[in-house]
Design brief:
With about 240 residues, this protein is an alpha+beta fold. The protein is built from 6 helices and 11 strands. The termini are far apart.
Length: about 240
């Protein structure tokens, strides 16, 4: 029987494991019951379509009722927390159709982000990825984004504790890993890790290798691609485009 995930173009080069895979119309999410937020969100960035889109940001934040109640986040968890409901798949990446933009406001696509991070350096990185995809030699751009929890530092929590005393942990860092398919058939990878804080560095300062993110986030990226060339690419920290 054909793997259902192979029917989604976003998963062409792989789909990491998760407690629950959420198949949306325009992106795929791997959800963590333990952290009550996504482990990752996978999309194909297409700013050429976005330039034609005229859908305004909907801001219709809401719980994802596909997730069992005991594991899902609610609006009340973020209220008065001091943290933004930070998009993994950016709203600006999905502005061609109303439903497309609406899906990005499911709380399964959110992680707690400091306002300074979400509205500044993280947004700058999102914009840079859209700019990368606009390069004439790039055919398609795949992006996987998610939280990192570094337990060597103090992890903050938001939301009311459930009956087991568990609330929602705030990620210490976030990652964004990018794979482009070039017009000559070459595959290129970039990876970024950023602390969930007010950052002042250049985007290039946060470049890491894809292999490093695999270890930090505990996921295997682009797992449908194999061979020494892929392992070499995963070990590169490519220059900015």
């Amino acid at each position: 029987m054909q793997d259902v995930f192979s029917l989604k173009p976003e998963t062409r080069y792989g789909c990491p494991a998760a407690d629950q895979i959420l198949i949306n119309r325009f992106y795929v999410t791997g959800y963590s019951y333990y952290f009550r937020q996504a482990k990752w969100a996978l999309e194909i960035v297409d700013p050429d379509k976005q330039l034609m889109g005229d859908v305004q940001r909907l801001n219709n934040f809401r719980p994802d009722f596909r997730i069992p109640k005991r594991f899902r986040a609610d609006l009340s968890d973020y209220r008065h927390s001091g943290f933004d409901r930070g998009h993994l798949v950016a709203s600006e990446n999905m502005s061609d159709e109303v439903m497309q933009n609406s899906e990005t406001f499911l709380l399964s696509n959110m992680s707690p982000q400091t306002p300074e991070f979400n509205r500044q350096k993280w947004r700058e990185l999102e914009h840079a990825v859209r700019k990368l995809d606009q390069k004439k030699d790039v055919l398609e751009t795949y992006v996987i984004t998610g939280p990192i929890f570094d337990f060597s530092v103090s992890i903050r929590m938001i939301g009311e504790k459930d009956k087991n005393g568990i609330s929602i942990p705030v990620p210490s860092h976030f990652f964004k890993c990018i794979l482009t398919e070039e017009i000559n058939g070459q595959l290129k990878m970039w990876a970024f890790e950023m602390e969930n804080a007010d950052l002042n560095g250049e985007l290039a300062d946060y470049r890491v290798t894809t292999a490093y993110i695999e270890q930090r986030a505990g996921i295997f990226l682009w797992d449908k691609l194999t061979g020494p060339e892929i392992e070499e690419e995963k070990s590169k920290a490519r220059k900015m485009w």
